[in-house]
Design a protein that fits this description.
The protein is an alpha/beta fold. It contains 12 helices and 15 strands.
């Protein structure tokens, strides 16, 4: 399951960062690529292996980003590489929306069988998470013959026009692209850490769900006009926020009561990331549509929606994709799912528990840490400048991520002031101890000025 490494020491930094070769590549890249790309720090990646990333100057980093929660089986897992090579020798492309081939059929059957719940499912393949959300958006409107969709502030569903219309993350992502798709209504996503109503006697606030039935339905949008609610089981880009225990069950009950579809955006949280194959399984809810991508194919561009059979009722030609379900990507995904089922999902739960315990220990020693939260290997650390006031430490978060990079640990932020820990699911205790040590030292360095 886990792969050996040729690198004896991790991390291992040989040059100042970026080194001369990396710097040359970065300068050329920035000359020719879109300025819309967001680069957290000057890392130019030459190779990846398991938990490790090597830049063009031979500097080796411990990767706790997994290519933004994509490389779940680690970088270039030998079984994934072999599956890609084998499929590429037989068939690279033949457009699965027009013809039939084995890898797409096999993967559709597998995903339909492992998706949450016992209701028969059907699968539509895409190239990315944003495309999966677009497909779910279209299918929900087509099936229900309703036009409105409820989404959440803090959510991130993608940057294409439909997905962007659902996204409620950052103004810069929406500015200048309007008018966006009409009919999207945003409401608050429950954040227990910042809920003003949370008290020892009232630990979980579900005011958001009360708002739907008490205000939104009678005043803004009657339920018979709402096609779907789209929700991340755990908010990703919004800050790795875990909702109250009853949230998803109550939300699902509301949708069922009014014939509204429940869409679970599992693009970041799915495929073993949280210690279950799908994050929504933690709450025992069966979505009507599930959106997948990121960890689905260990780095190959593949997404999917898995919908209840009776819901995926659009006719031929209503939606299609030239490259979605590409045979090479499907082969990589089939091997990815096999590795997950052979133990990586359970390993994610075990290592996530270990990592969270170590981060919780840091929280007792560092005033900058306001909260550690998450499930499995989808963990967020929210940084604050004052624990009682919970003042967001935005600049400090960016500085911590930068210091960790300079010391050989790859991390990324999420939300305004949280650091995400989303390593490949093959991570071991030794990797976690190394990462926590570097993170600890970065927090100390920042606190000491």
């Amino acid at each position: 399951m886990l792969q050996p490494t040729k690198y004896p020491k991790v991390p291992e930094l040989k040059t100042a960062l970026p080194g001369p070769l990396s710097k040359t590549l970065i300068e050329s890249d920035e000359k020719y690529t879109s300025p819309s790309y967001t680069r957290a720090y000057p890392l130019a990646v030459a190779r990846g292996e398991g938990m490790l990333i090597e830049d063009y100057d031979g500097n080796v980093f411990l990767d706790f980003t997994a290519g933004i929660a994509v490389c779940s089986t680690g970088h270039c897992h030998p079984r994934i590489v072999a599956a890609i090579q084998n499929q590429a020798q037989h068939l690279i492309h033949m457009s699965g929306t027009d013809f039939y081939y084995g890898p797409q059929q096999e993967l559709a059957e597998k995903l339909a069988n492992i998706a949450p719940g016992n209701t028969p499912k059907k699968v539509f393949f895409t190239n990315s998470g944003a495309e999966s959300v677009e497909a779910a958006f279209k299918l929900a409107r087509f099936h229900t013959k309703r036009d409105k969709v409820i989404a959440f502030f803090g959510s991130f569903h993608g940057r294409t026009m439909g997905a962007l219309s659902l996204t409620g993350s950052k103004a810069v992502q929406r500015r200048g692209f309007g008018p966006l798709i009409p009919g999207v209504i945003h409401i608050e996503y429950p954040n227990c850490y910042r809920c003003p109503l949370k008290t020892p006697g009232n630990p979980c606030c579900l005011k958001t769900l009360d708002h739907i039935e008490e205000n939104l339905f009678p005043r803004i949008a009657p339920p018979d006009e709402i096609a779907a609610v789209i929700v991340e089981p755990i908010q990703g880009e919004g800050g790795y926020i875990v909702p109250p225990p009853e949230f998803h069950q109550r939300l699902k009950a509301i949708t069922e009561k009014h014939g509204i579809l429940y869409i679970a955006d599992e693009v970041q949280s799915g495929m073993g990331r949280t210690g279950k194959m799908f994050a929504i399984e933690h709450w025992g809810v069966e979505p009507d549509i599930v959106c997948l991508a990121k960890g689905l194919a260990s780095g190959m561009p593949l997404g999917a929606i898995v919908a209840k059979e009776q819901i995926m009722d659009w006719p031929p030609g209503a939606h299609a994709s030239t490259f979605g379900g590409n045979p090479v990507c499907c082969a990589a995904s089939l091997e990815t799912v096999a590795l997950l089922e052979e133990g990586l999902v359970e390993h994610s739960a075990e290592m996530g528990f270990f990592l969270k315990s170590k981060l919780d220990q840091l929280a007792t020693r560092h005033e900058l840490i306001g909260e550690v939260r998450g499930l499995g290997l989808m963990l967020g650390v929210e940084l604050v400048t004052e624990k009682f006031a919970k003042t967001p430490a935005k600049k400090e978060r960016d500085a911590v991520v930068e210091i960790c990079f300079r010391n050989g640990l790859l991390l990324l932020g999420c939300g305004d002031n949280a650091v995400r820990f989303a390593p490949p699911l093959i991570v071991e205790e030794t990797d976690i101890l190394t990462a926590v040590k570097i993170f600890d030292e970065a927090l100390t360095e920042l606190a000491d000025g």
